[in-house]
Amino acid sequence: MAMLEQMEVTVEELKHLVSDQVAEGDTVLLNMGPQHPSTHGVLRLLLELDGEIVVNCIPDIGFLHTGIEKNMEAKTYEKAAVMTDRLDYLNTMGNNLAYSLAIEKLVGIDDVPERAQVIRVIYAELQRIASHLVWLGTQALDLAAMSVFLYCFQERERILDIMEMSSGQRMMTTFFRPGGLWRDVPVEFEEAVRDFLKTFPARVDEYEDLLTNNPIFIDRTQGIGVVDKESALSWGFTGATLRGSGVAYDIRKEYPYSGYETYDFEVPTREEGDVYARYAVRMAEFRQSMRIIEQALERLPYGPVRSNNRKFVPPPRSELGTSMEAVIHHFKLWTEGFDAPADSVYLPVESPRGELGCFLEGDGGPKPYRVFWRTPSFAHLQALPMMSKGHFVADLVAIIGSIDIVLGDTDR
Amino acid sequence: MDIAVLIEWIAKSAILIFILLTGFAYTTYYERRLLALIQNRVGPNRAGPFGLLQPVADGVKLIFKEELTPAGAYKAIFLLSPILTMVPALVIMAVVPWGESINLFGREIFLGLTDINVGVLYLLSIASISVYGIVLAGWSSNNKYAMLGGIRSSAQMISYELALGLAFVPSIMMAGSLSLLDIVRQQGDGFYLWSLLGIIEGGQTGGWFIFTIPGLFGAAIFYIAMLAEVNRAPFDMPEAEQELTAGYHTEYSGMKFALFFMGEYIKMIAVSAIFSTLFLGGFSGPGVYESTIPFMGITIGPWPILGPIYLGLKIVASLGLMIWIRATFPRLRYDRLMGFGWKVLLPLALANVFLTAIWVIIFQGFTG
Questions:
Q1: Does A108 reside within a domain?
Q2: Looking at per-residue confidence, does B292 or A128 come out higher?
Q3: What is the pLDDT, as a whole number, of residue B238?
Q4: pLDDT value, residue B201
Q5: What pLDDT score does A146 carry?
Q6: Buried-state track A316-330, b at ≥16 Cβ within 10 A, e below 16
Q7: C-beta atoms of B144 and A30 within 8 A
Q8: Does A36 reach chain B within 8 Å, measured CB to CB?
Q9: Higher pLDDT, B133 or A1
């Protein structure tokens, strides 16, 4: 009896969220998460089910709230860079990039050397591949194709090795800094990337062999979670999720940064807007990313990797022993930091998930007045109730996989 | 009753149960190693040589786990349902013959527990019982995930039982008997080429039934239906991890969980044995009967003791295919699975019965 009373209270509390049928007992409330194998982290979904059909789906976020935006306001611009890694932990290089570009725009650093720009592009694209590998693995695992998951993580590990090679960390890299890179990549870097590019196309073919024409996979994904062009735009979709609905919007093309306008690549789109379309778009993006990396490797010049603007960018270590001025700059930058103008800047980059925007507002001092991250996972997750209505629980799992959410990206 | 017969039965039952329980333990090991091989991993290799003691370690762990009963669970049924799943899986093997009779201690001992003349019906009826265990487990756990798993399994097993039953029919018709021993004997001595020629020469079906056209269709339907029957991927709906966490056994822990686990794996072994018996010639193989090696003219056998070895190998091959399928395929959706069972598999199985009838008339004539 006690349990029944408890239950009624719950229903009462949720009345504004669920349909009236719950109180009558026609539908059932099911808590999915925050500990559940396929909510991709700590997402809690409150489901109202009619049999196995989803009547209502209420995402409940905040279990991974880290307060990063607020924390960044308490740190100098240079030091806050390490916090950006922890936002979307599958896209660390991309977060670093958005943050570095935003600061460069805010304080006006415009002499980032060509080598740094090209390495940024290479790493951003490698990161995109790594992130898509996690997406592909988990999407396949959600549909119980368990081997694909392990195949994907095997290749991802190779990319993480390349990251570790340069930054000393597999995931929390903080490799891109305002004004360039932390330091130059090691000599083995180029060969490692070339090695990866040599074998990876065959791997993508393998994944496609396992899934693309698999009748069960097609059956599970086509016509599931359909979002048409207009709703996709009005829900604020970006990235592959939007391109799966037929809108060729890619920030690398629309608002190029880091010299993306000079690379030759396509923006794959699909018209259907279902889970399969998003799958197909991301699979095509693997190949486009490889194309960009190939071109970048061709043109990778030698030279410095940091801007010479000593007011904002610390001098190289080698100068500290010989130049008094360098020591002063070093000391100033690492204790007080640099002052940014009382101005605001918003800079979007194309993360593997969509538009990742960094908004910074300076107050003239060394710390930002306000930091805001526009994250794609948040925008996609809010459309989950709309996408999952009327589908089966099994489809809901496929849809969560297809919008490729990262909870660190949602609760920042 | 002759006391020796009683001792023989008890000894044979004990040996069979021992083989099944060991077989269960090593099926889990086999599955994990084979999955690891397919997925470029190592798999369990720490406990003992090649990790061979891993099942023992797992068993010990499960025994010492705390048994939890959720609040609001129906205790009696909660306790009963693992047993209901486990027992049918064990007794189903009673009618599967492991070989012809051998001479031991001056007695004719039949390798196999019994050979009842309606063996196939016995299989079908026992196989349907274990669904009660799953449904009741889901219902008595007082957990919504478990409940959904239980509902799914009842729907799934009902849809597949019919196709499974109809897939038995080709073998029964070609052998002209419901006894599993007769079905094996009908499939010849395992020299496939020789047996195939036998079809044409002797005017009767020799050789494994899977090599005949209706037998091949029957085997395919049977294999799919049996995957659904034992809840294996891609039909592992009742315990779909990604959707229902662990389905009907979400709330089970310790030995109660182990019983479900055993039930599932022993049932896998059992259906593999039945599949081998119906379509792959069961325990027969070169040398089990007195036979001549084709083109060489050497006569070998009869060595009935080889029977269990051949059947074991066939079971291992069938289990391997199950594991391979699990590693490769995504899971079907619940409604599609039902649609597939009723709209595709059942009509195909029915059509196959007619095909078998035509085949039997062509190659065996009217024997009745």
A1: yes
A2: A128
A3: 66
A4: 40
A5: 83
A6: eeeeeeeeeebeebb
A7: yes
A8: yes
A9: B133
- CB of A39 within 8 Å of any CB in chain B? no
Write the ipTM.
0.80
The residues facing B104 across adjacent strands are B107
Q: What pLDDT does residue B99 have?
A: 77
Could you give the number of structural domains in chain B?
A: 1
Partner-chain residue, chosen from A28, A144, A219, that has the shortest CB–CB distance to B336: A219
Q: Tell me whether residues B333 and A394 touch, CB distance under 8 A.
A: yes
Q: Residue A255 has which token pair? A: 């608002």
> In Å, how far are A61, A166, A309 from A79, measured between CA atoms?
28, 19, 18
Q: What average pLDDT does chain A have?
A: 86
Mean pLDDT confidence for B256-280:
86
Summarised one tens digit per residue, pLDDT across range B348-360 is 989 988 888 887 7
What are the 10-residue block averages of pLDDT along chain A, 412 residues in total?
Answer: 49 67 75 76 83 84 86 89 87 90 89 90 92 90 85 91 89 88 89 91 89 86 87 88 89 88 90 89 91 91 87 85 90 87 90 90 89 90 87 87 86 82
Q: Is residue A317 part of a domain?
A: no
Residue in chain B lying closest to A38 (CA): B242
Alpha carbon of B285: minimum distance to chain A alpha carbons (Å)? 35
Q: Does A395 touch chain B (CB under 8 A)?
A: yes
Structural domain that includes position B300: 3-364
Q: Which helix (H) or strand (E) holds A370?
A: strand A368-374
**Cross-chain residue pair B71–A3, CB shorter than 8 Å:** yes
Residues 220-239 of B with CB under 8 A from A: 233-234, 236
Interface contact flag, B242 A52, Cβ < 8 Å? no
Dihedral angle computed from the Cα positions of residues A37, A90, B32 and B88, in that order, rounded to the nearest 10 degrees:
10
Count structural domains, chain A.
1
What range does the domain containing A273 cover? 68-308+338-374
A2 in contact with B, Cβ within 8 Å: no
- Which amino acid belongs to residue B352? N
Residue B344 in contact with partner chain A when CB distance is under 8 A: no
With CB atoms and an 8 Å threshold, state whether B40 touches A154: yes
| pLDDT tens string A159-218 | 999 999 988 888 888 888 888 888 888 999 999 999 999 999 998 998 888 888 888 888
CATH number at residue A209: 1.10.645.10
Contact: A38, B242; criterion CB under 8 Å: yes
Let me know if residue A92 belongs to a domain: yes
Report the SS3 class of residue A15. Answer: coil
**Does A30 reach chain B within 8 Å, measured CB to CB?**
yes
- What pLDDT shows up at residue A346? 92
Which residues does A39 contact at the CB level (< 8 Å), separation at least 6?
A32, A33, A45, A400
What does the pLDDT read at residue B198? 46
Mutate to test the interface with B, among A7, A154, A213, A216 (most CBs of B within 10 A): A216
**pLDDT value at position A281?**
92
Report pTM. 0.86
CA A239 to CA A135: how far, in whole Å?
14
* B 26-45 → A contacts, CB under 8 A: 35, 38-41
**B167-201 tens-digit pLDDT:** 888 888 877 778 888 777 777 655 554 445 444 44
Residue A130 lies in a domain: yes
